[in-house]
Design a protein that fits this description.
The complex is a heterodimer of chains A (427) and B (227). With 427 residues, chain A is an alpha+beta fold. Chain A is 52% helix and 19% strand. A 6-stranded mixed barrel of chain A has the order 2-3-8-5-7-6, surrounded by 4 helices. In chain A, strands 11-12 form a two-stranded antiparallel ribbon. In chain A, strand 6 and strand 7 form a beta hairpin. Chain B has 227 residues and is of the alpha/beta class. Chain B has a single domain, classed as P-loop containing nucleotide triphosphate hydrolases (Rossmann fold), CATH 3.40.50.300. In chain B, 36% of the residues lie in helices and 29% in strands. In chain B, helix 3 packs across helix 4, helix 3 packs parallel to helix 5 and helix 5 runs parallel beside helix 6. Classes of the chains: A alpha+beta (427), B alpha/beta (227). Chains A and B meet through helix 1, helix 11 and helix 16 of A and helix 2, helix 3 and helix 4 of B.
Chain lengths: 427, 227
């Protein structure tokens, strides 16, 4: 008798599991190709999910840090009309609100948003160019508690209170050929609808990680905006910075409660403020979902083809096993184990490949510099970074194993419907 | 022990109706070594399949050890095959990724026999069929005769009531075929296992203690012979 230990399964389940694993080695090339297809699917899913999550997180961060804060207080109905920059739907008594918020140690920054034509002159030369842009009168001290604009000054300096000055983005400055020290004229309308002309000096050029800001927005002291636009102390919004790891986690509920006695205002959470982007993301996600479905179909077709071939070429063997008293359920399990084994190999390789791709996306990022030349509503800089999202990685791997196992049931079921005698005749 | 009563079986092949068995009745006692002979299409394999519970009779019935097979569910038939019936196939039908040992011990694993007992019984039987030292070989490293010995061991390992062998020597040369028949006969004598095998080979027929000839789905003759 041989001294080599026998490793026959102690249980029927163990036996069929062991047999299924051995069957994986029957056609190594086929197993490798199928597992490879699954691995590519899993890796691409993990990578795309990481990039999308990074994209969303970066967008949220840039929206929060430069445009919307974590929440905002606006006059009732203002948000729905925001594209027209109305000045007649303001927050009338911002100081009362700000005192209340500051007593609760909630960082808040009032802003006056208006639309105007920006005309740049190479003084004393004539007009060189103009563009319609959004302008924001900002409370210089409070603004830095909510927004990061003051940290993004690339040339010149940040605004000083009360001076008739403006800061613009690098992209806009380059388009207009403007530099620090150049005079600009802004034509707009006051709260009461009268035309107004503001002569300001460019004192700083900023370059944020939010290209939308760099292109479309200019900032001036809130007192100057208040005076020229005849706002009489009113502002178009008060932006808030709320506790939360991510802007989307911030809960505006307590602020709503705190301000419940104020009439004519509404507190908007980050989701609402970000709804334009959310729509774009939905479209983006739908596109990504189609790609992922296609990848899934490729993996499913691959594995079902492999399992179909396995089942068909082993018809005689299946007939023999059934004749020996192997139950149909046990045969089903055997093929399920086998397919899940292929899925598992693919999932493990896919996890490793995916992790490498994510690592690259997190550490190096993907340079979308060329795309940045195109006008887009996305709020991210030229380089897009991924994020580690372990739940999606595990989910992708588990899904691959499960779907592989389930796919095997179809050809097996078909085979088990055949009569044993027919299967035995198939040699 | 096995009673085949007025069994009829008809196949439909396209528009052709083939009457494989036309009222076959047979009683087989325990420990018999019965050969069922007849030309191709005489109904040998169909009769074996019905006795082996892998095919159903259109009418008539089969009793195995007092247990009436007709009307049993698919699951019940599977359990009967698992516990009581061993098969030896013409083309051996071993699982290529399993060793000789694993191919044989599989039948006991299905019955939930413990590893230790399984190992002891499998090793003893492999030695009995002349495969000592070849336990770890896969079928591809065994000759046709050795593969059929593994198949015989697989059929016998669970101590079945009957072993059904459908033309067990058809894929073997005459010397090897005779050796396999001798092996089955020895086991039949030592263990008292009932063997029923089909053949159209005269040499194989001569090994049977009883020869039952089928023709066109009917028993033409049934004679007991001295071994």
């Amino acid at each position: 008798m041989s001294a080599r230990p026998y490793r026959n399964g102690r249980t029927r389940g163990g036996f069929f599991l062991a047999l299924a694993m051995k069957n994986l080695a029957r056609h190594r090339r086929r197993t490798v190709i199928t597992a490879g297809a699954i691995a590519v699917g899993v890796a691409v899913f993990i990578w795309m999910f990481s990039i999308l999550q990074g994209f969303e997180a970066e967008n949220d961060r840039n929206m929060s840090r430069y445009e919307t804060g974590d929440a905002a207080i606006m006059g009732s109905g203002y948000w729905d009309e925001r594209d027209t920059f109305p000045l007649d739907m303001p927050v009338e008594d911002p100081e009362a609100i700000l005192s209340l918020l500051e007593a609760e140690e909630i960082a808040a920054a009032p802003r006056i948003a208006f639309r105007g034509d920006l005309i740049v002159r190479y003084d004393p030369f004539p007009e060189d160019g103009s563009l319609q842009r959004a302008f924001y009168g900002i409370d210089i001290e409070r603004d830095s508690r909510v927004f990061a604009l003051s940290e993004a000054i690339e040339a010149g300096r940040f605004l000083e209170p009360g001076n008739e000055e403006v800061i613009i983005g690098r992209w806009l400055a380059d388009q207009l050929g403007a530099e620090v020290g150049y005079p600009v004229t802004v034509t707009t309308r006051t709260r009461d609808g009268f035309y107004q002309i503001m002569d300001l000096e460019i004192v700083g050029i900023f370059n944020t990680s939010n290209p939308f800001i760099n292109r479309h927005k200019a900032y001036l002291p809130i007192a100057v905006a208040d005076e020229y636009l005849e706002m009489r102390g009113a502002v178009t919004a008060v932006y808030l910075s709320l506790p939360g790891m991510l802007p989307a986690d911030a809960d505006p509920g307590p602020v709503r409660e705190l301000l419940s006695e104020f009439d004519g205002i509404e507190v908007l959470g980050f989701y609402r403020l970000n709804e334009d982007f959310a729509e774009v993301m939905e479209m983006e996600n739908a596109g990504t979902a189609i790609i992922l479905i296609l990848l899934g179909i490729i993996a499913v077709v691959g594995i079902s083809n492999t399992m179909l071939m396995s089942v068909l070429e082993r018809e005689n063997e299946i007939g023999m096993m059934r004749a020996l008293g192997v139950r149909d359920g046990e045969i089903r399990w055997m093929f399920t184990f086998e397919a899940a084994g292929i899925g598992l190999i693919g999932a493990i390789v896919g996890l490793i490949l995916g992790a490498l791709l994510v690592w690259h996306a997190v550490a190096v990022g993907i340079d979308y510099g060329v795309l940045m030349e195109i006008e887009m509503d996305f709020r991210f800089d030229g380089v897009l970074y991924g994020v580690w999202h372990f739940t999606s990685m595990i989910a992708a791997a588990v899904f691959a194993v499960l779907i592989a196992g389930v796919v095997a049931l179809v050809p097996t079921r078909r085979m088990l419907r055949r009569r044993i005698t027919d299967s035995l005749r198939h040699s | 022990m096995i009673a085949v009563n007025e069994v009829h079986k008809e196949y439909i092949d396209g528009e052709t109706h083939v009457r494989a068995l036309r009222g076959v009745s047979l009683k087989i006692e325990g420990g018999e070594f019965l050969s069922i002979a007849g030309p191709s299409g005489s109904g040998k394999t169909t009769l074996l399949n019905i006795i082996g519970c892998i095919d159903n009779a259109d009418s008539g019935d089969v009793d195995i050890d007092g247990d009436r097979v007709g009307g049993k569910s698919k699951k019940e038939l599977t359990e009967i095959r698992r516990a009581k019936i061993g098969f030896v196939f013409q083309s051996f039908n071993l699982i290529p990724v399993l060793t000789a040992y694993e191919n044989v011990s599989m039948a006991l694993s299905l019955l939930g026999v413990s590893d230790a007992e399984n190992r002891e019984r499998t090793m003893a039987l492999l030695a009995e069929v002349g495969l000592e030292g070849m336990e770890h070989r896969r079928p591809s490293r065994l000759s046709g005769g050795q593969q059929q010995r593994v198949a015989v061991a697989r059929a016998l390992i669970k101590d079945p009531l009957i072993v059904l062998a459908d033309e067990p020597t058809a894929n073997l040369d005459s010397t090897t075929g005779e050796a396999i028949l001798k092996l089955m006969k020895d086991i039949n004598r030592h263990r008292g296992t009932t063997f029923i095998f089909s053949t159209h080979d005269q040499m194989v027929m001569d090994y049977g203690d009883r020869l039952c000839r089928l023709h066109d789905g009917l028993i033409e003759s049934d004679e007991r012979r001295s071994a």
